[in-house]
Every structure is written in C-alpha cells, then in structure tokens.
Amino acid sequence: MKTTTDQGSKSVTTVAARIAGEDIAAGDYVTILSETLEIPSFLWNCSEFSLPPDEPVRSRFLSRASGNPNKVVAVCLPFVYVKSPAGTLSAFDTRRQELVRLDRTQGRLIWKSLQKQWKPRKKRKSKGKCNGKSKGKGS
Questions:
Q1: Buried-most residue among 5, 22, 64, 82 (CB within 10 A)?
Q2: What are the start and end residues of every segment in region (Disordered) (predicted)?
Q3: Over the stretch 8-48, which tens digit does the pLDDT of each residue have?
Q4: pTM score, two decimals?
Q5: Res. 128: pLDDT tops 90
Q6: How big is the CA angle at 63 (ends 12 and 115), to the nearest 5 degrees?
Q7: What is the CA radius of gyration of the chain?
Q8: Is the pLDDT of residue 88 over 60?
Q9: Burial class (CB in 10 A: 0-12, 13-18, 19+), 13
Q10: HEC string of the chain?
Q11: What's the pLDDT at 1?
C-alpha cells in the first residue's frame, strides 16, 4: 500500500497503514488504531436473546492512545514490545489491539519532538558561587 502522495508541491500527505503482526519489525514506528474489548456473554445485558455462556461479546473502540508514536523494540507474536517517547516500555497484544505503521520519516520527526518534551531540563550550576556568595575561607 502506498503511504505517501506527492502532487508536485511541498505539501506531502502520509497515511498510516494497517499492519499485520508478522510484518512488524524492530525500529518501526507504530500506534494503536483501535482496541477490542471482550466481555463474557453472561455479563452482557444489552441483548433480547441469550448468548451461550462460553461465547464472549466483542466490542471495538478507538483507543485514547491513538496517534501516539511508539518505537518497536522487539516482536514475539502475538506481542509487540515498544518504547514510548517518554522512555517507558510496554507490550501490545495484536489480538486485542489493531496497530498501524507510521511513515518512517514522520514517525521519527514526531518521536524526536515528543522526546524533547519528556527530557528533564538540567539546572545550570554556577561556577564557584553558592547563593550569590563566593566560596572561600570564612563563608
């Protein structure tokens, strides 16, 4: 699937492409497109007919984490281990979470921008001074 379009101008549109678990590789930038929630049918009261007790009711919803880029660290299907721009590691379950691959250039750009927000700001140390007073004997 072609994920970029170029119409001769500086404006380029990229599309996040749905990806199967076996096509994900370390170094890819991915995000969650949607998630599936499974509820035991005996807890499901939104139906006029009864369902077999061993059959789960599946509900698909959009994740609050949609659009947040994650860098793939390792893949051991059905799990995809990722690192967020904040530096936290987490695992996605491809049976419950539908993933999309972000365009590599755009993913890297967004990743680096978000990493800058999460890096702690270092305090500048003053040279030889403490609270406005110089260090020396009797101080």
A1: 82
A2: 116-139
A3: 556 778 888 899 999 999 999 999 999 999 988 877 776 66
A4: 0.70
A5: no
A6: 60
A7: 24
A8: yes
A9: exposed
A10: CCCEEECCCCCEEECCEECCHHHCCCCCEEEEEEEEEEEEHHHCCCCCCCCCCCCEEEEEECCCCCCCCEEEEEEECCEEEEECCCCCEEEEECCCEEEEECCHHHHHHHHHHHHHHHCCCCCCCCCCEECCEECCCCC
A11: 52
In angstroms, the Cα distances linking 23 to 14, 67, 87, 98 are: 19, 19, 24, 13
Q: Which two tokens mark 89?
A: 């590691």
Domains in the chain, start-ordered, CATH in brackets?
14-35+65-119 (2.30.30.140)
One-letter identity of residue 19: I
